[in-house]
Each structure stands twice: as structure tokens, then as C-alpha cells.
Design brief:
Layout: E1 2-8, E2 15-21, E3 24-28, E4 30-33, H1 45-50, E5 56-59, H2 60-65, H3 69-75, H4 78-82, E6 88-91, H5 94-101, E7 129-131, E8 136-139, E9 146-149, H6 151-161, E10 165-167, H7 179-206, E11 214-219, H8 225-236, E12 242-245, H9 254-264, E13 271-273, H10 279-287, E14 292-295, H11 297-302, E15 306-309, E16 312-315, H12 335-339, H13 342-350, H14 354-381, H15 384-395
Parallel strand pairs: 4-14, 5-6, 6-10, 10-11, 11-12, 12-13, 13-14
Antiparallel strand pairs: 1-2, 2-3, 7-8, 8-9, 15-16
């Protein structure tokens, strides 16, 4: 388990490297498709391999609730369980526990100018999670049963799931929380990080029959520079193998926040930017020093009939594509584009056929995985800025 730094952009933040894991190397920067419940929705693991994905990220919260980490451990780990031979990640479950707890589901990055409060709840939602200094008590969104996550429990669950890269349990705040609450939460996350490391080291010794798992600390601090930098400096002092940049992020300040953090982090350890998947955000993340990314967006929007193209998002369900027998994206070498037409996908979505989601997801995941892979190549050959300008100019041309 190691990280090798290879090339850097002139700003000394953006870089290429390789994360070595027991299940293979991850050349970075890289986009990691999300397989929340040990599956990238609607597609076979073999298809995820074919699109060029370096790894997949599963979710500890969801797998804890179903089928249970004991089942996955008995199978030999999440890779064996889902027939995926490559590297795997699991997040700690903190985002899901706390985002579901305040009723925002998958969205915590709201407008930072909204009125802030200590006790935040989405409108017309019930509280499903209660946070204290020891951990979080939460209600399952599946059956309403009550559960308790502490740093130790999160480590135990993730060790049983068996991913190559796991994350420390953290409190994920929203941009609606006050500055005072963010400060208290940062202290809590730091204390939890210390407990995660202790439990991780204990479990690593007890479970020596399993491959070593890299543990990443998660940096919070919302939109505050001093808090983000403090969190990064504090976690640098601990024995983490890498770092995750998490929490609610004001999209307009994404690059600035990532830069603050990465200016503090050591250059010889990998950095994962959690929950980021839009093309402009990926360019910003790479430019400011993030190595890996994950996001559910490519698969989620695919299931609604939205596909990526070099000229922006396309709604494949509209009537204009009913008799369009061209490829979904001309020149795209993915399985969908080389074998199927816009007219066929249009028909599948209108007919509510399951194959629609499969074919659209294959294309969208390929589009984003290959986009970040191309960023890696342009950093190596010195043309990153030109590639960024050309790609984003075309992608967002219709929005100007």
C-alpha cells in the first residue's frame, strides 16, 4: 500500500501519481464510480471494467443495513462479494447517517448565504439522526429500526466489508450550520479520527489474514479557510494513509477550498475529493491537487434519460431523437455508442425498459472516467490548461 507522486502542474498542486493497493494500482487522477450497495446501479461489474474504471466505491452505511457486514466478510470482502477484481473504497457512512438525519438526502452543499442555525432540518422532514460526542444514533431509512455508529463501529463495519481504502468516521455538517457549530463539529471529528486510528490498528492486527486497508482521514470545515486549514494540519499529525476532502462545499468556492486543504497536506499521500463528478468541478479538483473522485451523478442522471456529450448534457428522451439513428455520442468508443443509436435509447426510455438505464449508465460512466484519465495524460504531456479550456468551452457553449 503506497502512493507514488509522478508529475506536477506548474502550480505544484495538480499532479499525477499511482496508488498501489493489494488489488491493483490506481493511476491518478482517477474517477471512481460509485457502487453504493456493492453494485454500480444497472450495470455488470464486467461493464465497469470495460469502461476503464480503476476502482469502485461502496457505501458502509447501506451495506451495514443490507445485507450486513458479516455477510460480506464471510464472502471474502466486497470485491469477492460483487465479483470485482480491482481496488475498492468504502466511505465511513457518516455522510449518509447525517445527511439522511437532517432530511437532505444526497444534498448538503446548499447556498452558503442561507440563514444559518445550530439545529438544521430540511422542511417537512423528521429527524432520523442524533449526534453526540461519542457517536450518532440513527433510524434506518429501510425499516425504521434504531442503530448506533461510533468511530469504533464504523471501523469494525469497514474492516468486515474489506475495501482497500476506507475512511474515518466524521461529522458531516451542512452549509446551514453556524460557524460556532462548525467549530464544535471540527473538534468532534478530530477526536473521532484519533479513535478511528486506534480501532483500525487494533483490527489490522486481529485480522492479519486480510490485506491491509489504507485509512483516510476526512477534512471538514465547510467554507471557512481557517477551519479547513486547521483540520488539515491537525489530521496531518495523525497516522493516516491518505485524506478525504469532505463536507458541504459551496460550489462557487470549490477550487479555493480544495487549494486551502492541499496546501496543508503532505505531498506524499493521496487525496480523495468526496462526492464530486461534474466536468467543471473535476477540472477544478484536479488543478488544485485532488487525486481521486467519486460521485453518483453519472449513473443517477443516466437513469432519468440524461447522457453526457462533449457539447453538454443531452435529454435522450425528447421527440427529436425518435428517428435519430446516429450514435449517442459520435466518436465515443464505449459499448453503448458503438452498438446502439439515439433512436433506440429514446425508445427504451419511452417504453420504460430496464435496458435503457444500463446503456445510458455505461456511456455516462465511460464519459467521466475517460475525461479524468485524459486529464492525467495532459498533465503528463504539459497540455492540461489547453485541454481544460477546449473541453469546457465546448461542454458549456450552449449555456452562454
Amino acid at each position: 500500500m503506497s502512493f507514488l507522486l509522478e508529475h506536477q502542474l506548474p502550480n505544484h498542486l495538480g499532479r499525477t501519481g499511482v496508488i498501489n493497493t493489494p488489488h491493483g494500482a490506481i493511476p491518478t487522477p482517477a474517477f471512481i464510480p460509485v457502487g453504493t450497495k456493492a453494485t454500480v446501479k444497472a450495470v455488470l461489474p464486467e461493464s465497469v471494467t470495460d469502461i476503464g474504471a480503476q476502482a469502485v466505491l461502496a457505501n458502509a452505511y447501506h451495506l451495514y443495513l443490507q445485507p450486513g457486514p458479516d455477510v460480506i466478510d464471510a464472502a471474502g470482502g466486497v470485491g469477492e462479494f460483487m465479483n470485482w477484481a480491482g481496488p475498492t473504497f468504502t466511505d465511513s457512512g457518516g455522510f449518509q447517517v447525517l445527511s439522511l438525519g437532517v432530511g437532505f438526502k444526497k444534498v448538503l452543499a446548499m447556498d452558503a448565504d442561507t440563514v444559518q442555525a445550530d439545529d438544521v432540518m430540511a422542511e417537512n422532514k423528521d429527524r432520523l439522526a442524533l449526534v453526540d460526542d461519542d457517536g450518532v444514533t440513527f433510524k434506518s431509512h429501510l425499516d425504521g429500526s434504531m442503530h448506533r455508529f461510533t468511530p469504533e463501529v464504523s471501523m469494525q463495519v469497514q474492516h468486515q466489508i474489506g475495501a482497500d481504502i476506507i475512511f474515518a468516521f466524521d461529522e458531516c455538517t451542512t452549509l446551514l450550520n453556524t460557524r460556532e457549530y462548525q467549530e464544535r463539529s471540527l473538534d468532534r471529528t478530530y477526536e473521532w479520527a484519533i479513535r478511528c486510528i486506534a480501532e483500525h490498528e487494533k483490527l489490522t492486527q486481529e485480522r492479519s489474514h486480510r490485506p491491509y486497508q489504507m485509512l483516510f482521514g476526512v477534512i471538514q470545515g465547510a467554507q471557512y479557510e481557517d477551519l479547513r486549514r486547521k483540520a488539515a494540519r491537525d489530521l496531518c499529525k495523525l497516522n493516516f494513509d491518505g485524506f478525504g476532502i469532505g463536507g458541504a462545499l459551496d460550489k462557487n468556492e470549490l477550487g479555493t477550498i480544495v487549494r486551502w486543504v492541499n496546501e496543508e497536506l503532505p505531498v506524499d499521500k493521496p487525496r480523495h475529493l468526496l462526492g464530486i463528478g461534474e466536468p467543471d468541478d473535476l477540472f477544478v479538483g484536479v488543478e488544485n491537487g485532488a487525486d481521486t473522485f467519486d460521485c453518483v451523478a453519472p449513473a443517477r442522471i443516466a437513469r432519468t434519460g440524461t447522457v453526457f456529450s462533449k457539447k453538454g448534457r443531452v435529454n435522450i428522451t425528447i421527440a427529436a431523437f425518435r428517428k435519430d439513428f446516429s450514435a449517442v455520442e459520435e466518436g465515443c468508443p464505449c459499448y453503448t455508442c458503438t452498438n446502439y443509436t439515439k433512436a433506440y435509447l429514446n425508445h427504451l426510455f419511452r417504453a420504460k425498459e430496464m435496458l435503457a438505464s444500463t446503456l445510458a449508465t455505461i456511456h455516462n460512466e465511460y464519459f467521466i472516467v475517460s475525461l479524468v484519465a485524459n486529464m492525467r495524460e495532459t498533465i503528463i504531456n504539459g497540455s492540461f490548461q489547453e485541454f481544460k479550456t477546449e473541453f469546457l468551452g465546448n461542454y458549456y457553449a450552449n449555456k452562454k
